[in-house]
Structures are given as C-alpha cells and as structure tokens.
Amino acid sequence: MSKPIKGVLTAIVTPFDHQGEFHPAAMRQQVQRQMRYGNGIFCNGTNGEFFVLNADEKVAVTETCVDEAAGRVPVVAHVGEISTRETIKLGKRIAALGVDAVSVITPYFVPLKQSELIAHYREVADALPVPVFMYNIPARTGNTLQPETVRILADHPNIIGIKDSAGSYESLSGFLQAAKGIPNFDVLNGPDSLIHQGFVDGCSACISGLANVAPQAISQIWHRFHAGDVEGSRQAQEQVSELRKTLYAIAFSPAVVKKALVLMGQDVGVSRYPIQFSAQDEEAIRSLTQPFTD
C-alpha cells in the first residue's frame, strides 16, 4: 500500500452524462473538489453505484480517479462481486491501475455461513496483489461479518482492515474490539453519523458518502480531531448530523446525494435506478444543502 489510509475518504459518486453514460470529465472535477479539502477517494462503492456499473465502467471510473489523484491522496476501489471468481477477476484489473487498496463487500443475494465468508476472503486476498479491506454492509447484502470472523481473517497478511457500514455503534465497536492488538489492521467507519465517535474509539479513517455534499465540513471532523481539538471535532460532527438525518430521509443514497449535488451546481447527472423527486423534495434539498455549497 503506497499511501496510509487515514482521515476522510469520500465514497465518491459516479457522474453520468445526459445519455446516462459514465462522464470522465465530471469525475475528474469531483476528485479535484474532494482533494481541495484533503479528502481521499473511495470509488465504485455504494455511493458510486457499483450495483449498476458493469466491469468495464468500474475500471474506467477507477482509472480516472487514480489518474486525477496522481498520488496526492489515497484511492481505494471497491471490487466486490457475488462470486469469488468475478471478484478476483475484477480485482486484478483494478489493481493494475495503481490503487492503494481495494475493498471487497460480502457476497450478496446468496446467504453464506461465516466459514464460507472466511474461505471467500482468503481466496480473494491470496489472489490479489494489492491490500484488501473487507466491507460489511448487511442491510444491502444479507450477509454479516461477525467480529470473530474478522479477527480470524485479520491474520491474513494481505487483509489490512474492514469497512463497517452496518450503521450501528454496536457493530463498529465490535470490530474495533476485535482489531485490538492486531498490528497493521484498521477499522474504517462507514456511517456518517459515527465519524467523530469512530475516530475517538480508534478508527483510522471514515468512508463518507455525505462528503460528496459537504466535503469541507466532513474533513473538519478529522482535521480537528487529528489536531487534538476533540470538542471541535464533535461540533463539526453535529453540524453534519442533522443534514445527514434529514437528507437521507428523503430518498435512498446515492440518488439523493446526486440530486443534492446537481442542485448545488455540480454536473454529476442522475442515478440509473427509478427514484423520483418531487418539487417539494427538491426545495427541501436546496434548503438543507445551501450552507454547504462550495
């Protein structure tokens, strides 16, 4: 891994043009926008709409992000697929682009035992030439990584951490407890509501979807904490917590995040799945995001 994964990585959206195709120029603009505030890049994740991208598009998205970041901030790419075979196949293509690490979601749709998840991650980590983060998001996959499973997998030399997006403090603290005493194994916080608390408890980084909308505000949670201003970090968290709660109540992210960005003047297009916004929704989004406009 060429860059340490610390601080804020934005779970960056994948911009589409008016024909619904990947928009590389707009992708570059979003990477630049995040780098202005010192945020790293996490691409092809949930907010990047990996579930509606084909393999070639995922490669193109990653290649664009890596090229635009040019080594100035870390770039982590999600490569998880339903099958171990396809995860490895995509992971090798992505690794060749120069990412700092990859993230692998638990297989979805198919219910798996913990022993099967262990076998899956070991095979992936054995096959890939870049460090691997596990990615736990049970609400979307139906499969949950247990802390004991994570502790077993942490012994693999190419598995360097876990991104937890289960959405609860109990889940995050369970992984932090499991990681205690394991060198070179990091816990990355997924929920935007727990960024500050995650840093207090020992998370090395957060992966933030809300940083698409409020890159500076999210970065302040980390920068103040890192500078020793724990109270200032907590206050920065409070600033974005209400935004998160109200914005995400309107519609599923990333659709609502992309709509917010468009209303903020960012050229990212619309999502590829059928979520609609009323005029009332749009007015509420404008009001919520106005304080965070660049």
TrEMBL record:
KW Cytoplasm (keyword) present: no
The entry's keywords: Lyase, Schiff base
Annotated residues for binding of pyruvate: 207
GO molecular function, one term: 4-hydroxy-tetrahydrodipicolinate synthase activity
Active site: 135, 163
InterPro entries the record matches: Aldolase_TIM, DapA-like, Schiff_base-form_aldolases_AS
GO biological process: one example: small molecule metabolic process
Superkingdom, taxonomy of origin: Bacteria
Pfam families named in the record: DHDPS (PF00701)
Family: Belongs to the DapA family.
Stated name of the protein: Dihydrodipicolinate synthetase
